[in-house]
């Protein structure tokens, strides 16, 4: 045990060098942020994260500027008093190690009473301020601190709220605010509200009274999700006779739309749906929901690119082409 501790004690000094890029240890937080967003690592006061394609790229502040300032996006010698969760002091601690207040495996080496140098313990170890060494995790009492998003993200940056496809967060004057897209979904990669079909998300917002009202709840019934043409919720019968508060979402396979009347997934042309009819379609052209069955949609990767007209002709959904023959699909009757 003493040999292990001694080795890790030496490792503390060695790890102070070459820390420009380090690896993350938890689930990637960048799934929430748009490309090129820079935030402070929630597990460190000295590391920043640059988000690219939902992947975190870590950088470490070193030398005489060991702290990362989320507001300026720069490495600084010290942080403002408002960032109290990252406050450390090297006063009377020269030539000693100080624990990183935001991380179990991070630490600072006080080169003198004013200069703190950042370092990290090896994988599967935690820093122990009492012994001034890295110790095995099972020997540590440290637990990673919880964090508030606004302590790592600067004001005005949108980021995903996983509670709903149409929801996102933004910090305003250091306070986390919940925002909602109107008739669209939030796309984390761009930080914008976009067409629902462009967002890969299963957390569809529950429609009002999705499983019926208290006086007449739906029992063991499938209902449309009112966001896509393929999606539906399953409302299970409740023992207390109330509407199912947590219906399960699912969707029909490719080239099938959900039909509430038959409670089945059927041919898209047999279902009226005003949402994106290119969703889940393998064809390049599909009939639109416009009344008269003369219009069609141009699809690309399951998303509508444009709507076009056959003029005086009708659109044949099976052939994927305009035809002089009259076509009367349920999809475009209303």
Automatic annotation (TrEMBL):
State a single Pfam family of this protein.
Answer: CBM_14
* Official protein name in the record: FI03257p
One GO cellular component this record assigns the protein to is:
extracellular region
PANTHER family in the cross-refs = CHITIN BINDING PERITROPHIN-A, CHITIN-BINDING TYPE-2 DOMAIN-CONTAINING PROTEIN-RELATED
Q: Which gene encodes it?
A: Dmel\CG17145
Stored Gene3D superfamilies: Chitin binding domain (2.170.140.10)
What molecular functions are annotated in GO for this chain? chitin binding
Q: Where is the signal peptide?
A: 1-24
* Xref: InterPro entries: Chitin-bd_dom, Chitin-bd_dom_sf, Chitin_bind-dev_reg
Chain ranges of the Chitin-binding type-2 domain? 27-86, 87-144, 147-203, 208-275
What the entry lists under PROSITE patterns is as follows: CHIT_BIND_II
* Keyword field: Chitin-binding, Disulfide bond, Glycoprotein, Repeat, Signal
